[in-house]
Design brief:
By secondary structure, the chain is α/β, with parallel strands linked by helices. It is built from 7 helices and 7 strands, in the order βαβαββαββαβααα.
Length: about 210
């Protein structure tokens, strides 16, 4: 046997972060980890509210930019990625439900219909920030009240925009998605190379780095 003996029970060596994620969403962090991008999570703490007459997509874009800049302004030495997801139906933005009753009402409103999911994503380096928004259309199956009550009872809808998680049990409610599923999850990974290029960074170099 050559080389030093591995320490029993030791896991893989932890890589240094290459990016700061200005979001406490475990789903966004998981998407970055799947891409091989180790990140440090620094939630912005901002409680964003839609402005009067502000379109849902514009709200998602503004909120993502505000989150990235808030964290970058704290002296981060790495690029900061912010994101925000808004579910829109009938021109109304649906955020996270306050309780089970509101989750039920949201899901009843979405049942059997197509709605839009807008995810804004922003990259900040110091005071410079570039942002974009990506939109996917999601069609729900027709749902009876018993099915909606079952899903609300799982607890999954209570911290999700629009009261569902397509990557979880909520996937049972979805008939189809037009656009990127990652946009619905909360981070349009297919748009990241474009976003990084706007800031003069090579996204592919980032993920290929050993």
């Amino acid at each position: 046997m050559t080389g030093p003996r591995a320490r029993a029970g030791a896991g893989p060596e932890r890589q240094e972060p290459r990016l700061v994620l200005a979001s406490g969403s475990p789903r966004r962090r998981q998407l970055l980890e799947i891409l091989g991008i180790p990140c440090r999570v620094v939630a912005s703490g901002l409680d964003e509210r839609q402005l009067p007459d502000e379109a849902a997509a514009d709200f998602a874009l503004r909120a993502s930019r505000d989150k990235a800049l808030a964290v970058a302004g704290g002296g981060c030495d790495l690029p900061v990625l912010g994101a925000d997801t808004v579910v829109e139906v009938d021109g109304v933005a649906l955020g996270k439900p306050r309780d089970a009753d509101e989750a039920f009402a949201m899901l009843r409103r979405l049942a059997g219909r197509t709605h839009h999911v807008h995810t804004g994503v922003a990259l900040a380096i110091g005071s410079r920030c570039e942002a974009l928004v990506d939109t996917a259309a999601v069609r729900f199956l027709a749902l009876d009240d018993a099915t909606i009550r079952w899903y609300v009872g799982t607890g999954e809808p209570l911290d999700k925009a629009g009261a569902y998680a397509v990557q979880g049990s909520g996937g049972l409610l979805v008939e189809g998605v037009e656009g990127s599923p990652s946009t619905v999850v909360g981070l349009p990974i297919q748009r990241l190379p474009e976003l990084f290029a706007r800031c003069g960074l090579d996204f592919w170099e980032l993920i290929r780095r050993p």
